Amino acid sequence: MTESSSAAADSAAGSLPANRGRWSSRFAFILAATGSAVGLGNIWKFPYVTGENGGGAFVLVYLMCIAAVGLPIMMAEVMIGRRGGRSPVNSMRLITERDRLNPAWRLIGVMGVLTAFIILSFYSVIGGWAISYVGVTASGGLAGQSSEGIGEIFSGLLADPGTLMLWHTVFMAMVVLVVARGVRAGLERAVKILMPALFVLLVMVVGYAMTTGHFSEGVAFLFEPNFANLSTSGVLVALGHAFFTLSLGMAIMMAYGSYLPKNVSIAKTAISVSVMDTVVALLAGLAIFPIVFANGLEPGAGPGLIFQTLPLAFGQMPMGSFFGALFFILLVFAAWTSGISLLEPLVEWLEEQKGMNRTISSVVAGVACWALGIASVLSLNLWSDFAPLGSFAMFEGKTIFDLLDFLTANILLPLGGLLVAIFVGWFLSRQALENELSMSARGFALWHNVLRYFTPVAVAVVFIYNLT
Ligand code: PHE
């Protein structure tokens, strides 16, 4: 792609990051896509859902979902974006018009916008937990704390709607600020330094975990599959989490794909992003489970897991308050870049459809999302016994926060992915796909068949098992 055509694609796609100057577009893409993919999903969610679903067998199914469902769909999404060269809704419009397909396919974009909105509402609350832990660790209050003490700090946070609201507001404001000003290019460049730093700190915590004497227990928990521990709903959670962690099923990768120059291999690029994302998640697991076992904690402790384990590690290691604060700062950055990618689709949609300018649409979207987030804040304390759909066995005991998470990760994202797989696998011409992907004949056939047959069937089967 030449400078001018890539600049044209940039402006057509709104104010997504510009890849100019010495930044090759492939690199910019990898930064942006990794920034979106690596976030709370890897460090906060992966360990706790693994713990709740019994470990090894869950991890194995999750890895299979990444490779056989997530990766092919990521390639499909990136491909639509590059072929359309515009924002997701416009790319879909262009492709459906050019290939004379039913315009209803554009609903994939609309559904994605809605899903992203719901996810961001609770993502911001958890982002807020991470911000508050920067202070908790930096203050040095963790040194020598027992696991009970650390558990109390965490339950104290959850019990306090005011503090939760404060940090939820701060996180959302950070996201709105960047989206409104369209300055994400700067942040994404910072990711180039911050992500490796996060990686190094994770490796450090894994190093600490090795000294706890329970490392092999942690490794066994993560990697020794025992299928007796995995329920059918666990399989759905693994599938849903594969979509969540790779930011799939809501057109985000389509938006980023519009920046990818024609001569870059979509397959290789998608593989790099998926591998990096998976490595970060597995490292988080390796860091956390040995600490869980060494301290007699419960692997299935739920969403608080990392906030009850990592502080123990930082409380015990030399310079722990420094490294702990640094770790949570980096986690906030990882969550920030993901949060931005969650708000962006709605802002773009408001600009396109309602003709609002960028600042106004960012503020409107952010405030609406923030307001929905209040329900998640309250479901951690005042409404913690309120299970709106509790009379259905499937939703028993699920608070609003749990329901929003379940609805998005386990239903809307896989559904979005399923539609992308069917659209690309069955409705776009094989010739066009071959041109766009320019892979070896074998690689292409593998991808195409997986996308046409395996992915839709796998998602459908998991759905049917769980929803009936
Ligand atoms: N992938 C991000 C994470 O793992 C979360 C996210 C989901 C971001 C969906 C964008 C879209 O934290």
UniProtKB/TrEMBL annotation:
Provide the topology term for how it sits in the membrane.
Multi-pass membrane protein
Report one GO cellular component.
Answer: membrane
Question: Transmembrane ranges?
Answer: 27-44, 56-76, 107-131, 164-183, 190-210, 230-257, 269-293, 322-343, 363-383, 403-429, 450-467
InterPro entries membership:
Na/ntran_symport, SNS_sf, YocR/YhdH-like
> Where found?
Membrane
Tell me if DNA damage is a UniProt keyword of this record: no
Principal place of residence: membrane
The record ties this protein, via SUPFAM superfamilies, to: SNF-like
Q: Which GO terms describe its molecular function?
A: symporter activity
What's the domain of life for this entry?
A: Bacteria
Keywords of this entry: Membrane, Symport, Transmembrane, Transmembrane helix, Transport
PANTHER family associated with the record? TRANSPORTER
Q: Which family does it belong to?
A: Belongs to the sodium:neurotransmitter symporter (SNF) (TC 2.A.22) family.
Report the protein name in the record.
Transporter
Lineage, please? Bacteria, Pseudomonadati, Pseudomonadota, Gammaproteobacteria, Pseudomonadales
